Amino acid sequence: MRLDKFLSSMGIASRSEVSAAARRGAITVDGVVCRDASTHIDPDRSAVVFCGRSVTYKKYRYIMLNKPEGYVSATEDGKDPTVLDLLPEEYKKFNLFPCGRLDKNTLGLMLITDNGELSHRLLSPKRHVKKTYVYRSKFPITDEEKELLESGVTLDDGYETKPSVIELDSGRDSGKITLTEGKYHQIKRMFESVNNKIIYLERVTFGPLVLDASLGRGEWRELNENEIKALEEHAK
Known about the structure:
Elements: H1 3-9, H2 15-23, E1 27-29, E2 32-33, E3 48-50, E4 53-55, E5 62-67, E6 97-98, E7 107-113, H3 116-123, E8 131-137, H4 143-151, E9 165-168, E10 174-179, H5 186-192, E11 198-206, E12 209-210, E13 220-222, H6 225-234
Parallel strand pairs: 7-11
Antiparallel strand pairs: 1-2, 1-3, 3-4, 5-7, 5-13, 6-7, 8-10, 8-11, 9-10, 11-12
């Protein structure tokens, strides 16, 4: 890969800025000053330093976001702010997108990435990737309603949901629900099918990922290597 392409793809600088820095002698490759931005390097092995900053190659980016209320799960929207608006300006150079969707007023764990293939596999119905949500409902859930929701219910459009797992809190009007699918407003519609209403919903797991408790609403961090490997294994 050309040096200028490498640095621009990492969001460090534009190709013209890389060329100018190279001419100034501000870039080193494996400890040697490189004045030619068209020099070919091995992105996985070459040690590149740009203006005193060491640059590590990342083919893809993976970001865990704690989604707040009022943001839509999209790359752009003409009306509401999107989850990408919560990221710093420098990340807008990459083709990032949310992996899956959360409703505008649903909170919690979102994966944002630029790895389209992995995202497609994680969202494929064939892989049955589990998602767990903390919820609160308007009315307590009876044993009969819990059994119905777990075995599968028919939504308002005739779709029959796959089995789910519900862990009820002591008051029975809150708990956790785990699904392996993600139809439009699915959990809200499931509860409506038993004459109830969801009044709070927060996703806390997505496949092997668990929402980082240190992240406040609207905060984010890049995934660590172990989390990335776990995602890749889950998507096989």
